[in-house]
Amino acid sequence: MKSLNKILLAAAASLAISITNVSAQEKVMVGEPSWPGAKIMANIIGQVITKRLGGEVGYAPGANAVIFAAMDGGRGDIDVHPDVWLPNQSSFTDEYVEGKKTVSLSKGSYEGRAGFCTPNYMVEKHNIKSVFDLGTPDAQKLFDSNGDGKGEIWVGASGWASTNIHKIKVRDYGIQDFLSPTTEDETVFYARLKDAIKNEQGVVFYCYKPHYVHALYPVTLLEEPDYNAANYKVVTADQDADWFAKSKITTGDEVKTVRVAHSNSLKERNPAAAAFLSNIDMNSEALSELTYQVVIEKKAIDEVVAKWIDENTATVDGWLGVN
Question: Which of 4, 109, 220, 274 is the most buried (most CB within 10 A)?
Fold first, then answer.
């Protein structure tokens, strides 16, 4: 009888473990910020979870603040931010990763760079090489696309952490008296950029790497002073309503580190996905190439990503810890 009881207890324990494992593999909601690289990373994450881990995935568009708040909540509304740029988004990681400890970052990362770009013909014909070349009466005329007497400089889309940073730069580099910072959706701006470059008109804009624009057009990243932490003070809008007045940037950006973030609730709700997200380590050049295929060649994002995953099995196996 004792032997039978032991067998029954072991069977019950095994069944409990099986039930726990099944219930732990909950659907993973992947945040989808608006920029192309983030959408591609979201799709890579989604396809690995569905095809390699046998899980279920959903996608949720949202700005940085929304995604981080949802990951903090841990209810499964949004579980993953696929493209966290640091230090741009450090206010969020300070709060949720270091402070509340409700969110974790991937161990792996890729390098990103950001600043202002202008087409090469503006460098060669008009000697626009530095951000300080934008704060002049000549630049005011060169970059005036609508004839209102003042030039324009695109600083990014609404909701991007980098957009407010580059608004501050425009002011503190002495540019705003000559060029007005503009914000609009990236796809809208790049439609205008195509026409401006075709007609060799003056245009200057926020840019970053990895990004397809560097493969699509001959553009130059303008010179800025080397990064100096003492001259780079950013107060974010969620920290202080008077963030703009209290911020000051007179130096170039620090080289970026880009990582994947996920809600720590996944460690219980879907431990396999949490382990994968901790290990993911994308290559910057590979991401630029995927972005080019999706945005410029107009290929379907899911097909481009599926092909890349099939051709990079060893890389994905490393993320999954199977090699």
Answer: 274
| Concatenated DSSP letters of 209-274 | ES-THHHHS-EEEPB-PPP-GGGEE---TTT-TTHHHH-EE-SPPPPEEEEEEEETTHHHH-HHHH
**What are the structural domains, with CATH classification, of the chain?**
22-111+256-320 (3.40.190.10), 113-249 (3.40.190.100)
Buried b / exposed e over 191-206, threshold 16 CB at 10 Å, is ebbeebbeeebbbbbb
Determine the residue type at 3: S
**Crossing angle (nearest 10°) for helices 313-320 and 271-279:** 120
Dihedral of CA atoms 88, 161, 190, 127 in degrees, nearest 10, equals -50
Query: Residue 194: how many CA atoms within 13 Å on its side-chain side?
Result: 9
Copy the structure tokens of residue 293. 């295929």
Contact yes or no for 179/151 (Cβ under 8 A)? yes
Instruction: Please state, in angstroms and rounded to a whole number, the distance separating the CA atoms of residues 108 and 33.
Output: 20
Encoded amino acid at 2, one letter = K
Number of residues in the chain: 323
In the DSSP assignment, the letter for residue 116 is E
Amino acid identity, residue 42? A
DSSP 8-class letter at 238: T
The mean pLDDT of 66-92, rounded to a whole number, is: 95
Mean pLDDT score, 201-220: 91
The crossing angle, in degrees rounded to 10, of helices 284-295 and 36-47 is 100
Residue with tokens 């760079």: 113
CB 173 within 8 A of CB 131: yes
What is d(CA 124, CA 127) in angstroms, rounded to the nearest whole number? 6
DSSP 51: I
Tens digits of per-residue pLDDT, 21-44? 444 589 999 999 988 899 999 999
* pTM over the 0.70 mark: no
* The token pair that represents 230 in the structure block: 């003492």
How would residue 18 be classed by pLDDT, with cut points 50, 70 and 90? Answer: very low
